[in-house]
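G., the chain you wanted modeled:
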Amino acid sequence: MIVQAILTQDTAATVGSVLEARGWAEAASVSVVTPAGAGAALEAAARVPAELLLLDVAVAEPRALLRYRLARPATRIVLLAPGRRPGDRAVAAAVQSQVYDVADDLDRLGHVLDHPADFAAAARWLDPSLPPDAPGEPRVLERTVIESRPVPVSRRTCAVAGPKGGVGRTTVVVNLAVAAAALGRSVLLVDLHAGVWSAARHLGCAGNRGGLLAALADPSAEGIRAAAERHHGVLVLSRGRDDGLFPALDQGAVAALCRVAAQAYDLVVLDTSPAPDDPGTYAALGTADHVLLTCDPGDPVSVESAAALALLARDLGRNLGTWHLVCNRQRPGAEQPETVTEYYRDLRLPIALAATVPDESERHLAALRAGRPVALDDTGPASPWNTLALTTLGADPGLWTTRRRGLLSRFANLRGDRLGARQPAR
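Predicted structure as tokens:
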């Protein structure tokens, strides 16, 4: 019988005694390795047609183990996992590579060798709620994920800045808020623009009751909720159409409002004024834990203005690691976002690219007139708005799954999920 063993120092002595007791010691090939040498040891072992492989879980590198299993599908593998319990990730990964014999007590290694296991017995390692010595038949749990949605690490306040008019800052604000709301997040949009109710108009609000003044006067969760308007799943605070150009916002009041909102909503999106010295803008950039810097790559003035704002923020001690670039209105043949990021690197501005939004001025203008943001219809992994929303929420864009609407589409989604969308619980 050809026996191989890949062990650590902790298991070598015990396994050596078992091999001697069974008369396998002289013919066995034993390798004592560290985790760093596990891949090479498994690769070397795969060249030998062994009947049995004793493998310490501490050196069972998942990818190397899978390659071994593919090369030697007939070899019985016994995993040595002393002290491990069901739900252990390393053991569960080995079971998924068709390693069913698991010795969690080395004193019972002989019993494991004499009683080969199957998947039904090994499946208990995939269920942390089942103790190792549970009586009765082992059970297999399977979870079917109908829809995978990203879960943000924490609630966030995001300020969207662009110190030059006409770069599509409000377009980014509105579509970001709508895309985040479509992901199931509670979203509050606060329009701090020095002009009139631009963000509210994008969302189709009448604009008669802006709500921002009332919320600033009562910066509580109840006051915000009572003053805000809801459109397309987003709560909106803006300057009302009848408010006019009232005096500049109070910096302290804006900061207090942002702090309360950050505790009540998953995402607070702040639309700032182009003027960096505006008290509302200054308060937003100081309070937000995430800043999106918007510019038009084809407009050198907007690129330089955005850089100037970032340099000013750096001089004021702001953490530019939380700043991200949104290249808006990207036109074919224009300067590429890589050119902008290289320009910022030359200025020693560590601002990463969050999203690139193609130039669709006519489409956005039509959406503005209809009060229906394009993010309502522009969904799926390829949508720049979903990418931007996931990045802003701190979630992995790979977790987004497209969901189609309609009776037939729902049936197709459900059928597809049942046939092939089974995923491990996250």
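The chain is about 40% helix and 15% strand.

Shout if anything looks off.
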